[in-house]
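Re: that backbone. Tokens:
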């Protein structure tokens, strides 16, 4: 594996807490690699995995890569200092309708990602609810890695969280009567100051945890998933 190809990093100002997954959203993996290694672009990630499962380590984990941009999670704004960023090569939503476009993430890529995530989580003791999407920390700007990304499979491999218990036991529903906004805030979301922001945040939540329907409406199923996850986080 070629190491530390990118000049785009600086020193961390905090201890690693989050693992953030992205897609590259560019025409090819090589184009994304070139951009993340270009000092003028001022973007990077710690890792990139191409469609064939080839892994690139662009920035040392001890350093602060520049992948999250303007972001917020659990009340913290310097998400780059707190996280490791992994980019999956995929053209993404911007290329929908083009040849290629937003594709399922290939098996070889997922296998490589699962191995890498397990190592990162172990090295830095990352909590399951701190394995998140770029769209979770920047729901007004970003939608990656998006609804085609298989978070459920990751959770089965021991990476991240997934809500299923409510299907077997509806009583798992939270007893606290706090508002939707407050629940989203407790999960970590940081952009909730008006109706439009709340809707974008619900879409981000659904892309992650209920990908078959991400209409931004807090229906009963979405609420039960959120309650289930909050119980897992705060149990
Ligand atoms: Zn991203």
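Recovered sequence:
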């Amino acid at each position: 594996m070629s190491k530390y190809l990118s000049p785009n990093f600086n020193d961390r100002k905090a201890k690693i807490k989050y693992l953030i997954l992205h897609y590259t959203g560019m025409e090819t993996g090589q184009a994304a690699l070139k951009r993340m290694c270009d000092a003028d672009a001022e973007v990077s990630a710690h890792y990139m995995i191409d469609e064939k499962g080839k892994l690139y380590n662009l920035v040392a984990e001890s350093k602060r890569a520049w992948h999250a941009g303007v972001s917020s999670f659990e009340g913290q704004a310097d998400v780059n200092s707190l996280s490791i960023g992994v980019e999956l090569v995929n053209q993404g939503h911007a290329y929908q309708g083009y040849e290629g476009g937003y594709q399922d993430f290939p098996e070889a890529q997922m296998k490589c990602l699962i191995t890498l995530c397990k190592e990162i989580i172990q090295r830095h003791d990352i909590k399951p609810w701190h394995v998140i999407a770029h769209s979770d920390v920047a729901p007004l700007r970003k939608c990656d890695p998006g609804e085609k990304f298989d978070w459920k499979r990751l959770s089965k491999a021991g990476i991240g969280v997934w809500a299923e218990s409510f299907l077997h036991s509806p009583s798992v529903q939270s007893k606290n009567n706090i508002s939707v906004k407050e629940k989203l805030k407790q999960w970590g979301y940081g952009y909730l100051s008006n109706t439009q922001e709340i809707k974008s945040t619900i879409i981000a939540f659904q892309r992650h945890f209920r990908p078959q329907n991400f209409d931004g409406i807090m229906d009963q199923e979405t609420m039960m998933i959120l309650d289930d996850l909050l119980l897992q986080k705060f149990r």
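The beta strands are 9-11, 18-23, 47-49, 55-57, 63-65, 83-88, 131-133. The chain has two domains: 9-156, 165-234.
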